Amino acid sequence: MLPRLLLLQQLLYRLSSYDRGSLHIMVDDWAEEYGDCYRLSLPAPGICVSDTPTIMAVLQQRPGTFSREAGLCEMVINFGFRGVFTARGEEWKRYRRLTAPHFSRPNVRNMVKYACDMAAKLCSNWAKHADSGEAFDCMAGCALYALDVGCLAVMGRDVGALDGARAGRDALRLKDVISARLCSPLPLYRLFRDDETEAAKKRFDSLVVGLIDEYRKQQEATATATGDAPAAAAAADAAIPAASSAVAAPNSNLLKHVLRATDPGSAAATDRSALTTAEMVGNVKTYMLAGSDTVGAGLSWLLYYVAAHADVQEGISAELLTEMAGAGGVNSEGLEDTLTWDQLERLEYLDAVVQETMRVRPLVPNIWTQAERDTAVAGVAIARGDSVIVNLRKPCRLDANFTDAAAFWPERWLIADGKRAPPEGVADFRHNKVVGSFGFGPRNCPGQVLAVVEIKVAIAFLVRAFTIGLAPGQGAPKEYEGLAMAPDAVRLVLQRRQ
Ligand code: HEM
Hints:
- This protein is of the alpha+beta class.
- The protein has one domain (7-496): CATH 1.10.630.10.
- The protein is 52% helix and 9% strand.
- The chain contains 19 helices and twelve strands.
- The strands form four sheets. It has a five-stranded mixed β-sheet with strand order 1-2-8-5-3, sandwiched between helices. Strands 4-12-9 form a three-stranded antiparallel β-sheet.
- A hairpin with a 5-residue loop joins strand 1 (37-40) and strand 2 (46-49).
């Protein structure tokens, strides 16, 4: 018989864990106590699974047998974020087909410039901390950086979050409010009016609608002038300045990509099932939200590890010295401001550090799904509407899967790839493919290539510019699960590198 948690026990745990953002730790603790598959009754009757074959089996059976958990989707939709994340069945297929290709590897190649522009800005902003020697919490800056790059990639606009511009503040507010609602044990926010958030939502929506109109008009005008739709699309790309210094690139933002792919009059269209303006707004906000909290949290964790492990920081710095020195431009403050896709691809050690950070601190520890029909998981009957919580965190932290799993040891990824030999004394090196940082199956993260680029570019620029240390008293951060699992605080001190 499957172990079952008592309803009261869950209720008490949930209420106490929500405000601490530690629901994911509770889910893990129960797996420790009750095993890789146990029954629970909240949010709906269902089970929680944490062994990799079962995890993969559940996540692969989407969109047909499982969808995202309904309560989570309802909350997100009520806040105006109806898009690929919340969609089910045929609607999901349509959204995914029209949006995800924009974040393919060849397209993301053209987005490295966005990350470089914003990383240079982040370095300039943080230079004041280096000059004053004052400790500061890096999390806000990381969140603003992720928002700016994300908005460039999805809307083609620099919303100026790092500059404190209003559009950036609006985007930040929407992200923060929805994250807070997700952590709220009871939907008390429904009882209160929040005029400022409503105003931010309206302004942000009209910014996106305005851009859609602008791109549509440019597309039509160029098509009429040339009578050549593919050329028109390319010319429209060139006509719209995406970022201050960004080069025009094919499909350089998600809105233009969707408009081009669905334009009924265009020979370049690959799909005629156009999205309505409301659907475009919902999806733009979805991508902006899904990309910013996760990348901001990931970058903050990485900065913690880089600051806490001087040897890791010097490893990254040494690799950058060979790749970046003399290769790119330098801005007015003497800080480097260019890194190419090909250079990024060669930064093997940095890649290992990113992967190791996501292993020890999975940014999305659980995926909450719901059965669309009666089915079975690992031999357990699941009724339509039951929830299945997939615990991605536990397999990443097991000694059975990774040698010395508790240790932060980036070199393990190079050893696993055959690029380094295991150290003496490690006879049975274990490195199993269980890390699902970006989920598994058809609904896995479409933004994963961009996410890794964003994190690498920011770390590369910051490590080239500064020696990064932990502020006095900064120990290992606590994990806080909101939209993504973030550290509670990462206080740093910076010194300019010579
Ligand atoms: C380090 C950063 C990121 C992490 C760890 C992450 C992780 C994830 C995970 C675990 C999922 C659920 C996958 C599943 O259900 O199997 C997901 C979904 C999603 N992510 Fe990401 N993500 C990151 C960055 C991004 C970025 C930058 C974007 C946008 C450019 C993005 C857009 C999305 C979208 C739209 C979905 C929903 C996909 C669907 O339901 O079809 N993510 N992400």
